[in-house]
Design goal:
2 domains; 3 helices
Length: 82
């Protein structure tokens, strides 16, 4: 495993279009995988079950409101206009 500083240097080199040796490319890909894992764990921890329930309730409320508006639109379109 390489240090963050070394990985950042490799990342910089790669994003500037410079060639990496096979070993460097492998090290960079491993570092990317570790960074992705860390980020995923952080996101997962922040999105708690409590927030999930709160979002679900908001969705149900909005769906209910949409149903009400849709019924009004359907009713108005079915009533003959004078």
């Amino acid at each position: 495993m390489i240090s963050d500083d070394d990985a950042k240097r490799l990342h910089d080199k790669a994003t500037r279009g410079m060639s990496l040796f096979e070993k460097e490319q492998s090290q960079l890909e491993n570092w990317y995988a570790i960074q992705d894992s860390i980020e995923n764990n952080n996101l997962t921890q922040k999105f708690s079950a409590k927030k999930s329930l709160s979002l679900q309730k908001q969705i149900e409320t909005i769906l209910s409101q949409l149903m009400t508006v849709t019924k009004r639109i359907i009713f108005k379109s079915s009533v003959p206009q004078i």
